[in-house]
């Protein structure tokens, strides 16, 4: 008991900041070895075609199974990985693992999988001098691997050197890769900037989707993004679809694709495997009610 009180007392005098910085230093050190220790995982979230509810692809989202701290989510470690210069390694690992997972599923099912694989790509990666070369190294000579890959980029990559970023994207585009502008609406750029980039799809940030029904300006924002993206020949993916009302509104706007908890959370590979094999996805009944 005395020991317990002593500890509690000691804790009281420990500044919270000190604890936070200790934890951070620990995460930095552990992150250096996370990939080689096989602690990274990929969760797969379905991307759905809104016209008919078909599974169109999936987004690969990284997780870190920390031996003592448990399952960690990207908001805890991505910014640290960026700051210590390890994000490229993490992103390439996710790309590699996602492509391998597709090939494992294909081997098990004995047929080709015609779905897209979206992978997040930090703005830091793209500014690495050998970025395109490294991506090519992972994708290899098989055109199908390049063609199924979509790299999700963010507006922040345009801040430093937009010309160089555009050149890198054009280079990889020639190999068959596709690009998607993630979290659209939260950054600084406009759709006219996207016009100049070989971006195939625009992902509207979930903050706007989720406020659509309470906030007229959020609704107008989504509507405008969809309209303008269409005039530029880009498809739209709506993020954060959580309710049938979101789905109905986005379908009516002509938004092509959607992602969100209404269809599925990011799933472990074995759970996603069931969905990949299914003839009719679990969310199909929603389309019956939407039509009715
Ligand atoms: P993101 O790329 O915008 O990914 C979507 C995030 O929204 C995911 O969070 C997903 O779980 C969450 N989400 C999806 N549908 C819903 C919904 O209906 N409601 C709500 N509330 N959330 C939803 P997650 O997996 O925690 O990832 C957070 C962010 O971390 C990602 O945002 C992405 O920016 C980054 N990230 C994830 N994996 C990677 C990676 O491998 N590399 C890099 N560089 N960043 C990654
Ligand atoms: Mg993303
Ligand atoms: Mg996003
Ligand atoms: Mg986001």
Helix/strand layout:
Layout: H1 2-13, H2 16-34, E1 40-49, E2 55-66, E3 70-72, H3 74-83, H4 87-109, E4 116-120, H5 123-126, H6 131-139, H7 143-148, E5 149-153, H8 157-160, H9 162-174, E6 178-184, H10 191-195, E7 201-204, H11 206-211, H12 216-231, E8 235-238, H13 244-253, E9 257-258, H14 269-277, H15 284-291
The structure holds ligand C2E and magnesium ion (MG) (3 copies).
One magnesium ion (MG) binds at residues 59, 120, 152, 182.
What's this model, at a glance?
It comes from Rubricoccus marinus. The protein has 292 residues and is of the alpha/beta class.
The biggest beta sheet is recorded as: 8 strands, mixed, barrel
Report the sheet-strand fraction: 15-25%
**List of distinct ligands in this structure:** ligand C2E, magnesium ion
**Discrete helix count:** 15
Helix content, binned percent = 40-55%
| CA-CA gap between termini | 65 Å
Please mark out the parts with pLDDT under 50 across 5 or more consecutive residues, or reply none: none
Average per-residue pLDDT, rounded, comes to: 91
> Using only CA atoms, what is the Rg?
21 Å
Structural class: alpha/beta
Note down, in words, how this protein is organized.
Residues 24-280 form the EAL domain. The protein has 292 residues and is α/β, with parallel strands linked by helices. 53% of the residues lie in helices and 18% in strands. It has 15 helices and nine strands. The chain has an eight-stranded mixed barrel with strand order 1-2-4-5-6-7-8-9, surrounded by four helices. The longest helix has 23 residues, at 87-109. The chain is globular and about 55 Å long. One magnesium ion binds at residues 183, 205. One magnesium ion (MG) binds next to strand 6.
């Amino acid at each position: 008991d005395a020991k317990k009180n002593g500890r509690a007392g000691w804790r009281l005098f420990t500044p919270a900041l000190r604890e936070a910085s200790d934890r951070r230093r620990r995460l930095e050190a552990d992150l250096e070895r996370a990939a080689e220790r096989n602690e990274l995982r990929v969760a797969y979230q379905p991307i759905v075609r809104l016209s008919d509810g078909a599974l169109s692809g999936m987004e690969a989202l990284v997780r870190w199974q920390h031996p003592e701290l448990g399952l960690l989510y990207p908001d805890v470690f991505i910014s640290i990985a960026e700051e210590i210069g390890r994000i490229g390694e993490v992103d390439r690992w996710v790309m590699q693992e996602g492509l391998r997972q597709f090939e494992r599923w294909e081997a098990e099912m004995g047929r080709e999988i015609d779905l897209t694989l979206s992978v997040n790509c930090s703005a830091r990666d793209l500014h690495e001098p050998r970025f395109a070369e490294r991506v090519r190294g992972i994708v290899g000579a098989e055109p199908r691997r390049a063609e199924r890959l979509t790299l999700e980029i963010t507006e922040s990559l345009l801040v430093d050197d937009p010309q160089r970023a555009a050149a890198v994207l054009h280079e990889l585009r020639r190999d068959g890769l596709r690009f998607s502008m993630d979290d659209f609406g939260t950054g600084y750029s406009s759709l006219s900037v996207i016009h100049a980039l070989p971006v195939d799809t625009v992902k509207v940030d979930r903050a706007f989707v989720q406020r659509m029904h309470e906030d007229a300006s959020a609704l107008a924002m989504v509507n405008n993004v969809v309209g303008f993206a269409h005039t530029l020949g880009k498809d739209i993916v709506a993020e954060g679809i959580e309710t049938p009302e979101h789905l109905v509104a986005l379908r009516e706007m002509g938004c092509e694709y959607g992602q969100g908890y209404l269809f599925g959370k990011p799933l472990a590979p074995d759970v996603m495997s069931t969905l990949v094999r299914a003839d009719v996805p679990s969310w199909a009944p929603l389309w019956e009610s939407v039509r009715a």
